[in-house]
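Let us practice reading a record.
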Amino acid sequence: MARMARNLERAPTLIPLDEESDIEERGIKGRAGRYYATTSELFINMTYPAVGAMREQLEKEYAQAPEPEVMQLLVRSLTRNSMIQRVGLAVVFALAKRINKEWDEEAMGKALEPESLSIAADNYFDSLQDARRSLGKRLNIRRVETGSADEELEPA
């Protein structure tokens, strides 16, 4: 049991950063995050471009919401949570590779580099559908595809 417990990783502590000074201090300006194995802390750059891109996309799609302030708060929360989840899962999956005997420490280190975490963060497209569902349900709005680039919203 003791040997098995040594091989288990513990989930990282997730620490979102919004202040430029904190982001620069952690060396993640232009990167999605940085994982520190010694403390099991994951610092996440909430100013990373994928967060803003996802937020802009959702705000554009739900611009016709009856309460724009509420919609913007929900979008901000959903995009932040999505970023935390994408980067956090990348770390968790990388740590799980330690069980795989074909992954050495060098390979593990590469998977946990800020650049690898950034690649995981960039794929926000898979997170859009869940965010849209949540927004539609909470705002009582559903998006109607019009067949053009413009999309309209109708009450649900």
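A brief commentary: Residues 2-151 form one domain.
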